[in-house]
Amino acid sequence: MTPLCVLFLDREVRMSASKSMQALCALSKKELTFLAESPAAPGAVIFMLLGCGIPFLFPAHNVMVPDFTLEQYVARIPLLSVLFFPAIAAGCWESERKNGSMNILLSFPVPNLVLVAGKIVPLFFIYAITLTLALPLVLSLPTLTESSMAIAGAGVVFSTYVMFLLFGFTLASLTTYLSIRFEGNVVPFLLSVSCIFIFDTIHLVPSLVFLPARLAQVCAWLSAAWHLESASRGILDSRDILFFLIPSIALLFASTLRLDHIRRNP
Amino acid sequence: MVKVEHITKSFGTVLALDDLSFVASDGGITAIAGANGAGKTTMLKVLSGILIPSSGTVSIDGVVTGDNPLRARALTGTVFEGAPLYPSMTVAEYLSFVAAMHGIPKKAANERIQNLVDSCNLSTVTKRIIGNLSRGFRQRTALAAALIHNPSLLILDEPTSALDPVELSSFWELLRSFATDHTIVVSTHSMQEIEANSALVFMMAGGRIIESGTARELCERNGASTLNDAFMRLVSRQGGTHERE
Predict the structure, then answer these.
(1) Would you say B218 and B201 are in contact if contact means Cβ atoms under 8 Å apart?
(2) Does residue A125 contact residue A133 with C-beta atoms inside 8 Å?
């Protein structure tokens, strides 16, 4: 291949990438507008913020959590996510099916990956904004309590937020996949609630029922809490990053395959 | 020009399209007629790249849809049955969205939108919410969106099914004005509309093309005075079956 061909190919690739990016921005904007107009997304954001904030607002009087730590905060967000993601995204593809606009989306000259990303990016964006809104609460905690949180540095907060973003990406990919895989709103909602709940709490199973040591270890390893734990101590472990990244990419790919399936067998 | 060669499409055990071949050329409106379940919508979805055929090839201006689906879709504009649009968007927002999805730069898109708003008589409703528009304006909006990237092939699936006579007349007038430099394939139940506006007609039944030609040729071949009579005779000869298992 001559250098000229390489340049031409590069230009083609660049143009195609730029068009895909433009389409992704347009899809994300459309989806964000739709979510902002629906009651589910603002409701889920308020739910998440209240869930994050209540123990911080009354640290001295909270009977359940008298000495609130960053570890407890880390454990709280996955549980709040059990409802946050399904409430916003379980019906994201159903609305296209019901509206008849699925055909419009499928007729655009963009790869399936862009159509899927157009659903995940807005969801992830809302989640990231919600986490950012919760950040002042975390940072102001040292002034409110004398708990171990007071000694949490910026690095700990940063690593925690990076891992939460990865965790959110996984859940966004999961909920979007379930929405495209199953018709209606109820089945994808219930399935995503169940999957996220299991993902968050599977490490507790060995404390409830007797399991062989190795199986208990597997349960712990499969749990989101296990992989978020080191971040709450300021450690960004590449194994934890891969734990969230690999299923996210696999689910993204599964969603594109599902769109391809719809083109063959609607 | 659109060339369809030996297209077959099955959904489970139902054969929706059965070895279908035809050519639709530029410069006129090609109509697809047939009873419900004849396979018209399936065929138009295959043409627009939404459905992948079980076998056979479709080429649009020489681009084979199976080999280069993104390029083929970029050459196609589709108005779907019932004009499903995003009801919470305004007309202008929807047209901008479709332009962005086709990768048209913003400045060029604005110019194109302005031209289409003028030619499709949408200037009075550009800032109105699509959900509040009449069916006629919704169809015009869908048509403008389908034409925004200046496609070679324009596909319309029963575009006039809910239009009143005034809207109907102006809609066909609009389509005829675009037919000079686009290949237009229309599916409709109305034989009168086909007779008045189409250069070429394909009659479908049971996923096959059972007859093709100009409206006059079809009438002559079937000893009918109108296209509607010709269609009734053809369908009765087919035994009225529209789906085959």
Answers:
(1) yes
(2) no
CB proximity under 8 Å: A 77-106 to B = 99-101, 103-104, 106
Which pLDDT score, from 0 to 100, does residue A71 have?
66
Q: Choose the weakest-confidence range: A2-6, B11-15, B154-158.
A: A2-6
- Which conformational region is residue A215 in: left (phi greater than 0), alpha (psi within -120 to 50 degrees), or beta? alpha
Q: The tokens 């379940």 sit on which residue?
A: B37
Please indicate if any CB of chain B lies within 8 Å of the CB of A110.
Answer: yes
Rounded to whole angstroms, what are the CA distances from A53 to A145, A200, A224?
14, 20, 21
Smallest CA–CA distance, residue B225 to chain A, in Å, is: 38
Q: What is the pTM of this model?
A: 0.86
Question: End-to-end alpha-carbon separation of chain B, Å?
Answer: 32
Answer yes or no: are the C-beta atoms of A94 and A183 closer than 8 Å: yes
Q: Which two tokens stand for residue A140?
A: 């102001």
Angle at B79 between CA B124 and CA B37, to 5 degrees: 140
- Quote the crossing angle between the two packed helices A186-201 and A154-181, to the nearest 10°: 140
The β-bridge partners of B202 are B32, B212
Q: Of the candidates A118, A128, A81, A113, which has an alpha carbon nearest to the alpha carbon of residue A96?
A: A118
Residue-wise pLDDT tens digits, B50-78: 899 999 999 998 899 888 888 999 999 99
**B201, burial (CB in 10 Å: exposed 0-12, middle 13-18, buried 19+):** buried
CB-based contact A25 B100, cutoff 8 Å: yes
pLDDT in tens, A155-171: 788 888 899 999 999 99
**Quick one: DSSP state of residue B130?**
G
So what's the pLDDT on residue A29?
94
